[in-house]
Design goal:
Elements: H1 3-21, H2 29-36, H3 62-76, H4 83-99, H5 108-118, H6 123-126, H7 134-137, H8 140-145, H9 151-166, H10 169-186, H11 191-205, H12 217-230, H13 236-244, H14 250-266, H15 271-279, H16 285-300, H17 307-317, H18 321-332
Helix pairs in contact: 1-15, 1-16, 1-18, 3-4, 3-18, 4-9, 9-10, 10-11, 10-14, 10-16, 11-12, 12-14, 14-15, 14-16, 15-16
Protein name: ADP-ribosylglycohydrolase
Pfam families: ADP_ribosyl_GH
Organism: Pseudomonas psychrophila
């Protein structure tokens, strides 16, 4: 399997997870059971979906769109991201979404950061309160473009992608953990090895950004992976929803994605079934599934995803990810 196969697997896995979780995002686990049972394929969103009303099956959300935005900035910056440029692109992105009448707007940490930027604060200051999963959800292109084998450059690029919105120990550690799994996968590492690299990177990266109170990413990921391994399959959903949590907090949703990935690595759970599980959990389902899809895709490649669903997502969203992925991989070798 080539690095291109793995990189496409990561980006399309992100989009697939995002689209699977689109109709269930912000719903409770019970609401999802009543409306959908268990997500097994791409579904459209009902009219009363709180964030994505009436979106057609296969539609992606801010997770994929902002990941593309970050990828484009990496290409334009030849492997670097200008935080001011990122802020301006996010402002433009939200304006475009508002013009379309979408409710899929900037998350709480990003929204606050952009308001600070518009008020004249520096990018270094604007992200000092960002602890949610917004940076982690859009970090996959950094994992594609930056090789974890060169850790200093890798971490610096992660920080550039986080600084303007999530310049905190939690925000940077969560994004770095996800990017490390993606980068390790593209280097040809198996999922278990890549998850170990992501866990270790969470410990390293937490020393950057503004310290904020909260459960540390590294210990929580390590604990959740162990708990997932030991959990009875019938109780895994309870562990994820009731104990780990599925909110927009990075210590919940990002950790939940790692816990599910651990089951793929150590138990008889397929990558696609794992995405369906994430999309059925309740809470921030689209982001959990998107992060999970990027990590699993990087380690097992594009062919693990159902071709007909990838084709549907590509058509519905007019995605053209191949050129971007090739450009990102070219940066990896600079």
């Amino acid at each position: 399997m080539t690095a291109t196969d793995r990189a496409l697997g990561a980006f399309y896995g992100l989009a697939l997870g995002d689209a699977l979780g689109m109709p269930t995002q912000s719903l409770s686990r019970r609401q999802i059971v009543v409306r959908f049972g268990h997500i097994t394929t791409l579904e459209g969103a009902p009219a009363d979906q709180p964030i994505a009303p009436n979106m057609v099956a296969g539609s992606v959300t801010d997770d994929t769109e902002q990941a593309i935005l970050v990828g484009q900035l990496l290409v334009e910056g030849k492997g670097s991201i200008d935080p001011n440029q990122l802020a301006q692109r996010l402002i433009s992105w939200e304006s475009g979404m508002q013009a379309k009448g979408s409710q899929d707007l900037l998350g709480p940490s990003t929204k606050r950061a952009i308001e600070m930027i518009l008020a004249g604060h520096s990018p270094e200051q604007s992200g000092r309160y960002g602890t949610t999963n917004g940076a982690a959800m859009r970090i996959a292109p950094v994992g594609i473009a930056s090789d974890i084998s060169h850790p200093e450059h890798f971490i610096n690029t992660v920080i550039q992608a986080c600084q303007v919105t999530h310049n905190t120990s939690l925000g940077i550690a969560s994004a770095a953990a996800v990017a490390a799994v993606v980068s390790s996968g593209i280097n040809g590492k198996k999922l278990e090895h890549a998850l170990n690299a992501g866990t270790e990177m969470a410990f390293i990266a937490e020393h950057h950004g503004h310290w904020v109170a909260g459960g540390r990413m590294g210990p929580r990921i390590r604990w959740a992976r162990q708990a997932s391994t030991e959990c009875n399959p019938d109780n895994l959903g309870d562990l994820l929803y009731d104990v780990i949590g599925t909110s927009v907090a990075s210590q919940e949703s990002v950790v939940a994605a790692f816990a599910i990935a651990q089951r793929v690595a150590t138990a008889n759970l397929s990558s696609f079934d794992a995405l369906c599980m994430a999309a059925s959990l309740g809470g921030d389902t689209d982001t959990i599934a998107a992060i999970l899809g990027a990590m699993l895709g990087a380690c097992a490649g594009l062919d693990q995803w159902p071709a007909e669903l990838i084709e549907q997502i590509t058509a519905v969203n007019s995605l053209q990810l191949e050129p971007l992925v090739h450009q990102l991989l070219a940066l990896r070798n600079l």
